[in-house]
Structure formats: C-alpha cells, structure tokens
Amino acid sequence: MGKTSKDKRDVYYRQAKEEGWRARSAFKLMHINEQFGILDNVQRAVDLCAAPGSWSQVLSRKLFDCCLTDDQKSEVKIIAVDLQAMAPIRGVIQLQGDITKESTANAIIAHFDKTSDKKAQLVVCDGAPDVTGVHEMDEYMQNQLIVSALSIATFVLETGGTFVAKIFKGNANCLLESQMLTFFKDFHIYKPPSSRPSSIEAFVVCIGFRLPNGYIPQIINPARDDIRLLARKTGSAVNRRLVPFIACGDLNGASDELSTKFEDEFTSEDYEMTYDDMIRDVDFPEEFKDELEDVLLDEIAVRSVENFQTHCLW
Ligand SMILES: C[S@@+](CC[C@H](N)C(=O)[O-])C[C@H]1O[C@@H](n2cnc3c(N)ncnc32)[C@H](O)[C@@H]1O
Fold first, then answer.
1. Which positions bind S-adenosyl-L-methionine (predicted)?
2. I need a surface site. Which of 16, 58, 245, 260 has the fewest CB within 10 A?
3. Which residues does residue 77 pair with via DSSP β-bridges, in sequence order?
4. Active site annotation includes 166
C-alpha cells in the first residue's frame, strides 16, 4: 500500500486536514502539551526545524491568537527556523537556515537579549535528517540536530525553561539522558499517541533549564568541531568537563581514526583528574556531581581495563 493511501486512513491526517494544520505533526506537539503542560504561561518560544509549520501553527494559536489586546500580542515572540522556506504564520518570525551552522544559531540568538528577562521559555526541535535506513547513521544525524538545538537553547532559554526534541530511540539515549540532566531538572522520553507506533521516533521533554555554574554557552557541531578544543577555548573548567559527554564520535568517525585519537588523548588518568576536579569543585552542583560521577567512574573502569589488556598483550 502506498504512503498516500496509508496517510489518508490515518485519523490524525484527516483531522489535520479538517482543522487546517499543515501537517499531522501538529498533534504530536499538542499531545506533548497535554501530557506536560509545556505551553502553559509561555510567551516566547523557538521552533527549530519548523517546516512546513504545523508546530509553529500550534504555537501561534496557543501563544498569539489567544491574546486579547495588541499589547499582549506584542509580548509574544515565536521564532521558527528551517532549511526550507515556509508560508507565513501569524505572530511567527521566520528564519531560513541550517541550525547546525553558527550563522543560523547567531541569527536566532540575536532575537533574545541575554541580559534581559525576555529570554525564551520554550525551545522545540522536530528536526529530522533525510533518513538513510542505516539506523546507527540516522540516529547519529538526529543526535547532531539535538546537540545543535541544545547549544542554541543554552543561549536563549531562561532559567526554568523547557526543551523538547525529537529523538530516535536507541542505545545512545542513556548518554543523552545524563547530558540533558546536567542542563535540566527533569528529563522524560515520551511517545505521543499521534506518533505512529511503527516509527522509532520519540521526544525528549526536558523541564527546568539550569545553566551549570561556570558553564559558558557555546555553539557546538560535533561533526565539524573538535569539541574538546572548543571547550578549552572558553577557558571554563566546567565546559571542559561537560562538553565531551554531549556526543561521542562522528560519522567520519564513528571512524576508527577519531575513536583512536580520543582514546590516545583521554586516558583513565585524565578521567580521574576530571573526576577529582569535579568532586573538589564546591561550585559544581551536587546533583550534577551525582550524574557525572556515574559516567566518569564507568569511563575510568573501561579505560583501566583497556590499559591493562594492552599492557598484558604486549
Ligand atoms: C518532520 S519535519 C518538521 C515538521 C514540523 N515540526 C511541522 O510540524 O510542520 C523536519 C524538518 O527538519 C528540517 N531540518 C532537517 N535538518 C535541518 C537543519 N540542519 N537545519 C534546519 N532544519 C532542518 C527539514 O527541513 C524538515 O522541514
């Protein structure tokens, strides 16, 4: 059965047509909202990977259209970004660009004054790369989008803000969870009823944004940047500790070359030093210590075994 006829049987497809949503995806955001109340009292939001625009329509209807006065409307800010152009939506500022590019990230960030109390309360990302069918590669590309979206969120989100992003359920989700919990109080993975059961997509819903003490926001693209170097450039010890956990490897480099380089560079002693630094750092929040402690101790154990095996073999 072709895709079109399958879609037409779908209750959300039909309902989307009837209610004027540009895509059935609108129901995913509405279901996430029903479950977590992510749109409650929100006036400022960023919609990443927004085309054709059904999530932006939901934001427009819930944040903008419900305002009773022009003054209230002027307080609403919705920024929507995609590689593709989109037809206009009331109350939505549109940017066309690649969210993994620094220039696009900067254009989004420029809409939010970092010193004022008018930062975004919500960042959503429904981005999906062209799926290749090779699960590891698709999952990796999806993670790239999440890392880019999260980097943008660290600049624009206000404390307590919410971050929602599409993921492909897979092995890297534990890593993602530990990473997200360093930036957010609560982490959930949710599959809305409108997401097809046959699809491996789900959504991370991260609530209660808190920039770790001493962390300096930075635009990160793990496929392009040497993230350790980037973290070092900030001069922040906290960035050096947190950034390596955002993503591991890249596509060239799920490559042996890159993994070998990292293994050479980051030994169990390095992890032990990072661990000691973290434990001693009184400014480092206790809950992050607990999260990172598990990751670091695992790494120390793995590296020590590898080290032992290498030496025994020789
Ligand atoms: C599933 S669609 C989003 C649907 C949208 N939430 C809606 O409700 O209409 C995924 C979108 O991600 C966009 N996308 C993928 N990679 C991107 C990137 N690097 N930068 C910006 N947009 C990207 C695609 O162009 C596509 O429009």
1. 53, 55, 82, 98, 126
2. 260
3. 44
4. yes
Rounded Cα–Cα distance for residues 189 and 165 (Å): 10
10 annotated to bind ligand = no
What is this structure's pTM? 0.79
Q: What's the rounded Cα separation, in Å, for the pair 242 and 259?
A: 18
Catalytic residue among 62, 166, 185, 191: 166
Domains delineated in the chain: 3-209 (3.40.50.150), 227-313 (no CATH)
Atom of ligand 1 nearest to the CA of 26: 8
- Beta-strand pair 120-125/157-168: parallel
Token pair recorded at residue 1: 């059965």
Which residues are near ligand 1 (CB < 6 Å)? 22-23, 25-26, 49-55, 82-84, 98-100, 126-129, 145
pLDDT tens-digit readout, 24-74? 999 999 999 999 999 999 999 999 999 999 999 999 999 999 999 999 999
What is the CA(102)–ligand 1 centre distance, in A? 17
